[in-house]
Specification:
flat; Arc Repressor Mutant, subunit A; 4 helices; mainly alpha; about 10% strand; about 110 residues
Length: about 110
Amino acid sequence: MAVIVQYIVVRNGEQKMTFTSKKEADAYDRLLDIADHMYAFLEAAEVDMSVDQLEELSFFLAKNREDAVSLLRGGKIKNKAAQPPADKPAAGRKAVKNKKSSAAGAASAAGK
């Protein structure tokens, strides 16, 4: 007979995830704590979002907290998976033309 040790993360009486190591379970529990705090922060901002959207955004920000902190400090995203595709501008932002290419185009048009 084998003995299997499992660590179960439970929130508000609901089982969230099961792990085989205490370290992983603690890390996930901390992630959920951060997501809960982020949810309260976003909810206080009176952002017009559904509860499901707020929960999803809170969890995403908690999961990608290192990149979020870097961005808030004026830095860049370190995690390539969290970056928007290069061919599309970030949501809510308009594409900005490269100044060099538009200046070169204007100079060549003026020279004709």
